[in-house]
Write a structure and sequence with these properties.
- The structure is a single chain.
- By secondary structure, this protein is of the alpha/beta class.
- It has a single domain, classed as Isochorismatase-like (Rossmann fold, 3-Layer(aba) Sandwich), CATH 3.40.50.850.
- It is built from 4 helices and 10 strands; from the N terminus they run βαββββαβαβββαβ.
- The strands form 3 sheets. It has a 6-stranded parallel β-sheet.
- The N and C termini lie close together (5 Å).
- The protein binds zinc ion.
Length: 214
Amino acid sequence: MRIDPTGDILGLVDVQPTFMPDGELAVADGDAIVPVVNCLMGRFPRAFATQDWHPADHVSFASQHPGKAPYETITLPYGPQVLWPDHGIAGTPNAALHPDIDQRRVEVVIRKGCDRQIDSYSAFQENDRRTPTGLDGWLRQRGFTRLFLCGLATDFCVGWSAEDAVRLGYAVVVIEDACRGIGLPVRAGWTTMDDTRQRLLARGVAFITSDKLG
Ligand SMILES: [Zn+2]
């Protein structure tokens, strides 16, 4: 697959220490993507990044709901919400972009989940499905038409971002070896990883590995 230097952009979704093995919401093997992302960064002329950026009392934290444990689901005004360990707390070192990421080509950083009452998995829209992050406007005004997504976690923030991007009219490619997933069990033999992959394929998202980029 050839990279178009004018219409293509690399998107780094939540490449933050908080989601890596020593972080608060650890994604298994999450730090393995850092060298792959840096290699990709040398191939794309432009990149954007997102950061999960929560107040310390964010509604998605199990600690804010007495009697609830991380990974349980509750119902919020905008629908079901998985509860997480406290993570991505605005201004803390673990919420920064990973210090080993080469940021020279990152032209814009979108921070999401800033509103205490609303979680935000997607790079484009918060979980109430109404509040935009502003990324669509930036990409559109700059003329980008195809997004290559990498980051954490495949089955939440990368997956939701890919789905919204397709809905907004972008071509979307997920670079699988530059992503890792959480993989919550949802039913016997399946995980949210399988669900995410099937759902995205059905919507026209392409999956490739980084060695397939020309
Ligand atoms: Zn979060």
